[in-house]
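Weekly sync, protein design subgroup
Attendees: M.S., D.O., the rotation student, P.L. (late)

Item 1: inverse folding check
M.S. brought a backbone from last month's batch and wanted to see whether the design step gives back something sensible before we order anything. D.O. pointed out we never logged the input encoding, so this time it goes straight into the notes. Structure tokens as presented (225 positions):
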């Protein structure tokens, strides 16, 4: 049996909204240390990793044995209560080991600014250049480092060991930005030979991370017969 209580019930909705377009079915792993999820999208292109630490809940108790989950929502004045019961599914999925990696470039920026910059295809490079190409035209957005702001969450910080140029199918990136309501900032970690990592912190209790492999562009000369 798992019992947990969140003072902000809207947090659970924001988490579910951020992954529902990518993941249809997923296993939630519940242990004494926290509440976690790891799942790939149906095309096996993007990976979602969620962690909510146990100490971030008002009440958290994890025991073995139960095939039903119950969600109960209370109004702040406790004059309205709604509960929903759902039978759990047994999903056969493989848990991936994700090694700690060093990235060539790390960008921290306002999540709303990142969300407004996404197009169809992007190429982050050096400072942070997002290029979009479509059937009717192109667009380029340059995000430079900016730490001279009144609020830390409004800063754009770029840590770069070497330039990185990658191309992504940004319909996935677009889905990742659905997590923007969870955090005012987003961290984008880039490296030439690794999937990009887009991370949103969830208050003081955890994070949601999205992993996406870059598109492999064929050399034009090699593609000619």
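Designed sequence read out in the meeting:
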């Amino acid at each position: 049996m798992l019992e947990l209580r969140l003072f902000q019930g809207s947090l659970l909705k924001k988490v579910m909204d951020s992954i529902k377009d990518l993941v249809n079915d997923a296993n939630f792993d519940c242990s004494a240390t926290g509440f976690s999820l790891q799942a790939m999208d149906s095309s096996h292109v993007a990976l979602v990793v969620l962690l909510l630490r146990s100490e971030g809940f008002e009440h958290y108790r994890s025991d073995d044995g139960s095939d039903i989950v119950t969600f109960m929502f209370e109004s702040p004045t406790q004059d309205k209560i709604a509960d929903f019961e759902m039978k759990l599914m047994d999903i056969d999925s493989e848990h991936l080991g994700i090694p700690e990696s060093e990235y060539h470039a790390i960008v921290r920026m306002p999540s709303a600014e990142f969300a407004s910059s996404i197009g169809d295809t992007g190429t982050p490079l050096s400072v942070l250049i997002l290029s979009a190409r479509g059937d009717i035209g192109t667009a380029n957005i340059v995000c430079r480092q900016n730490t001279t702001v009144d609020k830390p969450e409004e800063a754009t910080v770029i840590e770069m060991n070497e330039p990185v140029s990658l191309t992504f199918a940004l319909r996935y990136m677009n889905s990742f930005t659905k997590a923007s309501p969870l955090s005012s900032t987003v961290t984008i970690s880039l490296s030439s030979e690794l999937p990009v990592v887009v991370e949103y912190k969830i208050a003081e209790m955890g994070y949601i991370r999205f992993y996406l492999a870059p598109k492999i562009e064929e050399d034009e000369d090699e593609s000619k017969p």
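Discussion: Residues 120-127, 219-225 have pLDDT under 50 and may be disordered. The first helix runs from residue 9 to 19.
Action: P.L. to compare against the previous round before Friday.
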